Amino acid sequence: MKNRFKILLSVLFCSVCMFPAFAQQDYSIAKINPALLEGADAVIRFSETQWEILSKAEARSKVRIAVTILNERGEEKYNSFQVGYDKFTKITDISGNLYDASGKSVKKLRANEIADFGQGDGADDITDSRMKSADFGRKSYPYPYTVEFSYETRDRNMMFYPRWMPASNPKASVELSRFVIKAPAGFVFRYKEYNGAPKVVITKNVDNADLYEWQMAQQPVEKKDDMYPLPLTDRIPMVIAAPAEFEIQDYKGNFNSWEDLSRFYYTLNAGRDKLPPATIAEIDKLVKDAKTDHEKIRLVYKWMQARSRYVSIQLGIGGWQTIDALTVAGKGYGDCKALTNFTIAALKQAGIPAYAALIRSGREASMMEDFPSSQFNHVIACALAGKDTLWLECTSQKVQPNFMGTFTGGRSALLVMPQGGRLVRTPDYKAAQNTRTSRVRVNLEQTGTGQIETQVLYTGLQQELRSAVLHGINKEEQKKWLMQQINLPSMDLLRFELSESMAGEPEVTEKLSMNVRNCATKTGTRLFVKPSLMARSFELPADTDRATDFYLPHSAYNFTDVDTIAYTIPADYALETSLPAFKIESTFGLYEMKSSLLNNQLVCWRKVVINGGRYPSKDFAAWVDFLKKIRKADRAQVVFVEKKT
């Protein structure tokens, strides 16, 4: 399903759209309003999507975009285009043109310059989807220049209607963008405007068809970068459209409610959960001694992970109809739909009720819960153990049961049930669950050089990156990555070890041995020692003014760090300053530091708790103040002076 959704998002939901039948326009840069050039990498001169609904089963789209590219960053984004197609979508026309700064035509795309290739990424992709792609070459033309692309498609998958996002790129201004839906008179479909998108204008054309039009013009880029932008779905003007009723092949459905969407998906995949006798016997043997439903779920999940692997398979009805469990049992592979269906079938054989759940995966991914429509790109399993719910990511051979992480955690999922499902919430990960607990021992020399031994335990969302490093790259690459993460001057990484605990909640332990020159600063007879050595640092925003809400992403800002660092101070040095102690409390979290000195052992303890989420603009000054206080506390130093002899 994942690759299918990538294609649909790039083709049908694209906000930068083209249309080949328009008259030639003047693309001279001199015609651009100077306000649209300020801070922009590109100017969208003209963008239009026309979606013509022919029936419940078929539509035609005409799309066109013209973009003036101002620099290399704009070229990276807009110099090329891709159009996906499959047995449900046929490309009937495609073209491209390039114009110089004066608007003069320089080049037209020839048919042999438009590549056509399968969507599979390699051996682990099986798909009937294809892609047409074209570009004019990078750094081949002097800036500014304008590219114009257009195409037309015929669509027989009416589960998906276009989404219009005219200003989705913060560094591209918009001269004119239009979204037009044409429907037979009285034809019912659904749409909704978000985040200040213009209201629809409804008219009739000469053949009595209904025309729905949205338009945006003269939209400059934001004047300054936003360190804490709201999620895209909360800040970008957009229009979402979806069918009321639709037909695809021999299936009929409607998306008027989440229950309806769930019922359609269930019907599409009903009867595909039969298991072969040998697999049934294997499952019965696996769980016969299990004492609880929780134990059964964990046994079945680990068994499934050990005997199957993920392969992206995008065949059938829009990539939505799963490969049956018999085939997965025999082949040992499947996509997210197939592996989830197979796991649910195995759980049911073990006496555990379980359901597929449609979800939008990806870091900080979100959906419009008030607009039932196909906004999903992934399927996971939901198993019930009495009153408890265990979520299972069936495409991973490593993930622990009930750990969703940044990929699918903390968001709505649609349960697929025979009588229609409902939106439910996957596990959230609060600051107390996403921990980094470090113990650092530093043997400090008189020169300021330190021999450092660290052991750090990562849990929750904080362990994800290191788990990926542990499983994804070799030891040499791991060392290079770790050295990039350690913010210490003149550091030699002597030894390191990454290990993972597979019992209970996922954990990764990191052990490091280092030699660090200038670990403490030596000035004359004094040593300046930093209690917050190796602690996480915080960047301050350049501007403290804020007119809109700001967002601290849960994936990055919901955490608890606890650092304990023990310095062995050279015996011939004595404490000259007081020992630092801080406690800073805020709506956004907590900061504490304590320190003690016994004999020549300086022990510093530091705790930081940050609570992510969306905050009103009036709280921004308080957030900046909180960061400033943390940074000031982290700059505290303990000074030792050489003892007089």
UniProtKB/TrEMBL annotation:
Domain of life: Bacteria
Coiled-coil regions listed: none
Keyword Transmembrane appears in the UniProt entry: no
Residues of the Transglutaminase-like domain: 285-354
Signal listed as a keyword: yes
Keywords tagged on the record: Signal
Gene3D superfamilies per record: 2.60.120.1130, 2.60.40.3140, 3.10.620.30
Protein name listed in UniProt: DUF3857 and transglutaminase domain-containing protein
Protein source organism: Dyadobacter sandarakinus
UniProt lineage: Bacteria, Pseudomonadati, Bacteroidota, Cytophagia, Cytophagales
